[in-house]
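User: Hi! I have a protein structure encoded as tokens and I'd like to know what sequence might fold into it. I'm fairly new to this, so please keep things simple.
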């Protein structure tokens, strides 16, 4: 794990457009990490204490289904955010996540980021807007995936 410069963070799609001073503050809460394929970032139901911005590699979000193998909801790559649950109570992971290939990312300590946002409400607002857009997309793709797996042909858009 190594420190992260504000310039490196500012180039990430998720943070692009933030003011330089805001990115500088976030750099204090970030480290660069390299994780091997197969690394488990988190388990559904665990405490959400960090999040990651992917710079290379791929991470699969999965959902536990009783009596079945976990279902991959979405595969994330460069420019994506891994972990949204840290941003609101109860701060508990809603999915699990695995690196499906070697992955590099910026890892953030959620408590530090929350503290930074409490001192800079404009930054908090900007992050909340971005996280809401990501969460909305995840809900859409989760719904599509569930319909693919469990819906009737009519729900999937097929003919009966």
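Assistant: Happy to help. Inverse folding works backwards from shape to sequence: for each of the 160 positions I chose a residue that suits the local structure. Here it is:
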């Amino acid at each position: 794990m190594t420190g992260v410069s504000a310039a490196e963070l500012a180039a990430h799609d998720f943070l692009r457009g933030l003011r330089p001073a805001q990115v500088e503050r976030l750099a204090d809460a970030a480290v660069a990490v390299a994780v091997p394929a197969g690394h488990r970032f988190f388990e559904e139901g665990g405490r959400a204490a960090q999040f990651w911005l992917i710079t290379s590699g791929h991470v699969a979000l999965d959902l536990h289904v009783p009596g079945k193998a976990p279902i991959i909801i979405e595969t994330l790559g460069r420019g994506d955010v891994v972990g949204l649950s840290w941003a609101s109570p109860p701060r508990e992971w809603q999915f699990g996540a695995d690196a499906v290939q070697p992955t590099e990312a910026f890892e953030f300590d959620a408590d530090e980021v929350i503290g930074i946002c409490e001192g800079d409400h404009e930054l908090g607002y900007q992050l909340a807007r971005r996280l809401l857009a990501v969460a909305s997309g995840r809900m859409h793709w989760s719904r599509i995936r569930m319909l693919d797996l469990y819906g009737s042909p009519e729900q999937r858009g097929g003919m009966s």
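A useful reference point when you look it over: The mean pLDDT is 90. Feel free to ask if any position seems puzzling.
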